[in-house]
Amino acid sequence: MKTAMKRALQFFLIAVTVILASPAFAQLAIPEIPYDSAPNLLKLPADLYLGEAVGVATNSKGHIFVYTRSGSTNVTTGTNRAFVRASSRLFEFDQNGTFVREIGHGLYAFIFAQSVRIDPQDNIWVVDEGGSMVMKFDPDGRVIMTFGRKPEAITVPSGPPLGFVPPPVAANPAIAAGAAGAAPPANVGAGAPGDSFNRPTDVAWDSDGNIFIADGYDNSRIAKFDKDGKYIKSWGQRGTAPGQFHTPHSIAVDAKGLVYVGDRDNHRIQVFDNDGNFKTQFISVGDPWAICITPGAHQYLYSSNSNNPYTMDNGEIYKMELDGKIVGMFGHAGKQPKEFDTVNAIDCRNPNEIFVGEIGDWRVQKITLHPEQAKK
Amino acid sequence: MRRLSEILALVVVAFVTTSLLAQQNAPKHAAAFATAPDITFDSAGNNYLKLPAGLYLGEAMAVARNSKGQIFVYTRSGEASRLFMFDAEGNYLKEIGQGLYGFNMAHGLRVDAQDNIWAVDEGTDMVIKFSSEGRVVMVLGKRPEFGEGILQTPGPGFSVPQEPYKFGRPTDIAFDAAGDIFVADGYTNSRVVKYDKWGKFIKSFGDKGKGPGQFDTPHGIQTDANGNVYVADRGNSRIQVLSNDLTLRAIYDNVGAPWTVCVTPGPHQYLYSSNSNPDNNNSIIGAVTGEIYKMELDGTIIGKFGKTGKLPGEFSTVHSMDCRNPNEVLTSEITSWRVQKITLHPQAPAK
Questions:
Q1: Pick from A49, A156, A312: which is nearest to B97 by CB?
Q2: CA of A198 to nearest chain B CA: how many angstroms apart?
Q3: Lower CB density within 10 Å: C or N end of chain A?
């Protein structure tokens, strides 16, 4: 009898531990933040279209910049090599969503869009995964600094054998091995010391103007440069240990200079000091496709657990304190207004009025949060 | 001498056998061809659609009309897929979606009951929904990313694993009265997928094969007023009829290889199916194909019209039909790069 009770107690304790540790319980405890969406804010001229809205950012005037994938992808051959031509587009809208202009039309490294961010001086920073370049535009839209170099020509990888059945999307070897299809080197993803990128993903700055670039799909490192573009250092390689990455997909820096990296396929946000020393990690917010840190005295961290483009799972966005404490969450995957279809970018210049750029449904939504209406 | 005659005899036997076999394998007309009455018709000619100087149709993959009779054509061009809009008389109005991320290799185009325009692109594995004004309002599927490289197209007999939100060279789209969406998917997936009007996955039906409920390139799809789903199972030379929740109801296998099907609106609905000549321009097969059948929804043959050819009133691989007006059918053709307006003159039924 005693033994049976002891067993029951043991079982009970284990059950409680399991429930407390499970994500389901964690989510039950997280308050939902009420919110509205303006899904049709952006008005494009009749002959312009968004494709996958992978990057969105606002400047100090509230102008909205969208970096998108367009259909003009163009591979030409010459001297027995294949050359890729411009197919990313950067659009600027005013604060009401009225189209202002296109920036960088036909630019040399506008190949396959990934991210746009605006720095405190309203410079526009564009990260192009296909061009493997980061381009800094001044507020007038002129290129004033470049990082990385677009590959001169691309190697079109030969297909797998006839009858090859592709593995599930997450483990696609073509993605893992990169566009060239080459086997990764031993210290995979560490990259070369300097601004030589391999499908970079995102960019951020600290208050001194130091530049942090997340690099990327094929490299798995963070590269740091000073404000003049001089290489300082880089850290990380492909892996799961602290300080290693499996697709550093998004990056943000807080007012103290701490660096937050959305380490997407490792399902965690890693936090580093300004020199790249690992500080901590947040593992309870799913796959951080996009992160954003608000300005101001009390900074918040947003992170989107976006759905894989071929599913409708997850999709919620978390609002957190900088120490990882979850304040609340909102949204889920879907194609309706107020739903999210693979959020790839968040702008949070205004903490309760954020913009999300989505891969599915090719749209930008303006999300207004109403934390004051949250149920206590 | 005896040796020589033996050889001669062998050669003759071999020749006769080969020609007999060839005759057995010779392409034949569809089963319904001999008995289906001919429907008389006119064509408005090769230049029914009037394009501005500097614009051209390529392979006219799909044609569809909206409720105002305005005509939309989805075509393969020298740049990528292009979508052109014309008025009801065939005068050019505008282009929609030039340079769109989802436009690569045109395949299907349909206009729904609310006049939204749906393009199906087999080169990006995407379905794009435009509002009646031509703005993108929803997309289904995802274009494979730049970094994924080029994967070889799976060969015959192979199909890729089916995923709810990933198409494999989709071909066509249809809608029921509730707004649910049916995608014929496609060259590599061989299935029909049903979504709700917001693009949420409901059900997938079928895989690659020859058995009932299997498909060998579901190449066209339509629904009737009761929500039944008609699938042009081209490689299996049959139309498969499914209920609204995607269970097999019937098979019509007497109208050749249905490249495309069209169901008319109105109280008495008809089903058109095109036994198109092949797009490799094989003249032997072309001689026994090319006709379009008009049928009752239950498969009863009413008549047929047309034959393979390049002249007005002939067809060169009809790839889509619009039958919003039951006796004024628009056809779009792959190998003649044209859209024809076909006016039918159905005879009074024989007493």
A1: A49
A2: 11
A3: C
